[in-house]
Amino acid sequence: MAVIPYPQIDPVLLHIWGPIAIRWYAIAYLTGLLLGWWLIVRMVQQASLWANPPFNGKAPATPDDIGDLVVWVTLGVVLGGRLGWVIFYGTFLCGVSPHGGAACQGLPMGFLTNPLRIIAAWDGGMSFHGAAMGVILAIILFCRRRKLALFPIGDLICAVQPIGQFFGRIANFINGELWGKPSDAPWAMVFPRAPGGMPRHPSQLYEAALEGILLFAVLQIGIRFFRWQDRPGLTSGVFLIGYGVVRYIVEFFREPDAPFLPGVSMGQALSALFLIGGVVVLWFAYKNPPAENAKDPA
């Protein structure tokens, strides 16, 4: 028996009418976006952060720019997160191992017989890696449109992203989804929806602590005490590498959605790509002088 009982929390915060409801998962997304928006605005208004070259007292964006960017980022999160799940998990993973997980449920052919399942995020299915790719594309397009420097804007987004990651993983825990592997640890829990009724790692909480709290602390310390922002791209590179490493490790404790490769889950494969991407971004950050990195990418 699990030493710590799983808290039974209704995933629905408020029923409105019929299928319309306010869920903790939606509250988590909204809270992460609003707090991230608030913190970035505070950062661009803090003159001491931008006193050194290449900024020389001018922040890389205005509060109005950030407000508009939040709209683009929100679309990147929602569209990228869902499309990423459909491609990486619903199509590719379920196509390789169609009976490997309950989430497959007839996928990927189900997308053809019932196209509504492609957008049915309310039934579960959002990919962080897909959301991150959507956000990256949104940032690139926004910077080109506004003639803003890419790396400094990307650094600002990466510096606050762990806030959303923390709340998202807490929402996964409340939903009783993305549970961990069976464990005899004293903090293991029995998740009602998990098969077998065995105590399992609360891997959602591991991710909230590591991908959320720890990564946020590292990035904020790097910016505020070691002035990583003076070398545009450094914060983004550290974020990609840090997330890739932490997620790869947590996957050893998290029950994979379905078998992917021997000894390697889909989450680990995608995290390895993030790790490689982070190394590439760091190379660009150190390849050119800071002044060149902060130029208009368009």
| Strand order in space, largest sheet | 1-2
Mean pLDDT: 89
Largest sheet entry? 2 strands, antiparallel
Number of helices, where a helix is a run of at least 4 consecutive DSSP H or I residues: 9
The arrangement of helices and strands along the chain is EEHHHHHHHHH
Global outline: globular
Termini gap: 59 Å
Strand content: under 5%
Low-confidence stretches: none
> Level of helix content?
55-70%
Rg: 20 Å
Helix-and-strand structural type: mainly alpha
| Quantity of strands, as a count | 2
Oligomer: single chain
In short:
The protein has helices spanning 24-45, 63-96, 109-113, 128-146, 150-175, 203-226, 234-250, 266-287, 290-293, and strands at residues 12-17, 20-23. The protein is mostly helical. Strands 1-2 form a two-stranded antiparallel ribbon.
Describe this structure in words.
- This protein is 58% helix and 3% strand.
- It has 298 residues and is mainly alpha-helical.
- The protein has a two-stranded antiparallel ribbon with strand order 1-2.
- A hairpin with a 2-residue loop joins strand 1 and strand 2.
- Helix 1 crosses helix 2.
- The longest helix has 34 residues.
What features would you highlight for this structure?
3% strand; 2 strands; 9 helices; mainly alpha; 298 residues; 58% helix
